[in-house]
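Weekly puzzle thread! Below is a chain. First person to post its structure in token form gets bragging rights.
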Amino acid sequence: MMYAAIMGYGTIGSGVAEILTECKDKITRSAGQEICLKYVLDLREFPDSPVADRIIHDFQVIESDPQIRLVVETMGGLNPACSFVKACLKAGKHVITSNKALVEAHGTELMEIARENKVNFLFEASVGGGIPIIRTLYRCLMGEEIQEITGILNGTTNFILTKMDQEGAAFEKALKEAQELGYAEQDPSADVEGHDTCRKIAILTAMATGREVHYEQIHTEGITRITDVDFQYARKMGMSIKLLGTARISGDKALAMVAPVMIGSENPLYGVRGVYNGILVKSQMLGETMYYGSGAGKLPTASAVVADLIEAVQQDKEPVSAGWRNEQQLMEESGKFRYRYFVRIEGAAAQKKEQIQKAFGDAETIVLEGTDEFALLTGEFFEEEFVKRAIGFDTESQKAGEDGIRQMIRVQVQ
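Winning reply:
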């Protein structure tokens, strides 16, 4: 028997406790021995909970108990989660976390501490909820050179964009519904501004390259500028708009970005709707594979935590070598990305034909009846080149006393 403790009895922590109870026999068979939950650390009392007799409020109880070999961190945030995890690793305990902020900010240090103390530090649930993407990268694709990872990595933003796409809802209305259903926080900025997706693609890029990547290195845009009008154009073009985290790897360099992107129906991510996540991985020999499932939620995420618990028991004497080295990944500037571009402009296309040709070359024109604008679908440009062209177009428009570009959305190049 191996004893475990859970730190944080919120949505995910309570889900882990539930699975350990409901699937006890299956877990025991898979792990090779029983996993017994001894403590649950939380500031609150849970008198009516199935774990009421195991609730504690003092972390030192976990740290100093030699019986505790497994620790699950589902507290979230960096403090006190980081100091607690460090102490557990140094005390020779395996740690499993669902905390993406912790893994992104302190993963390198925590992995090194785990290696020094010959224990496991596992974090499958930090990206993609219940989708087994971390384990896929270090187990199933261990012999592959990863060339690209592109994913819908945030269920809240995907729910909002799906509502806007399928029901024509405005952003504010779709966000309010997401909040009412519990998919979005009262302060949704981490989701809708793209920061959550950014941390996750940073972790995946680090896993793929074996080097440290921080979210500050990644150009990030959220979905707050996307409107129902953008989706009207997208539908007319046979496309949809998704918030994508993308990393492309070539040699010793990586290129990463988080931004809304228009994709066509031929893209496997086109059909990923609601709170679901989808992740495309392109590798040298296998080619393109897709991983799809619940990217958040109590039991899907807890399921990933429990899988890590089982692996930690199985690898008790020979810890898993999963993660990255204490070495910075060389990141390219986001201007090296290449896209087509969807551009909305006030006025009539026929009156601005020369100006458009000068700025963007040959471009397809799209018109929505009953509007005072038109849109362009440009050819392919490097991001840095397109930005220069767009600035030039805006400058010429201002000289003529006209408004410039109303909206720009990147369009996936297949």
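Puzzle host: Confirmed. Bonus trivia for everyone else. The CA atoms of residues 88 and 254 lie 33 Å apart.
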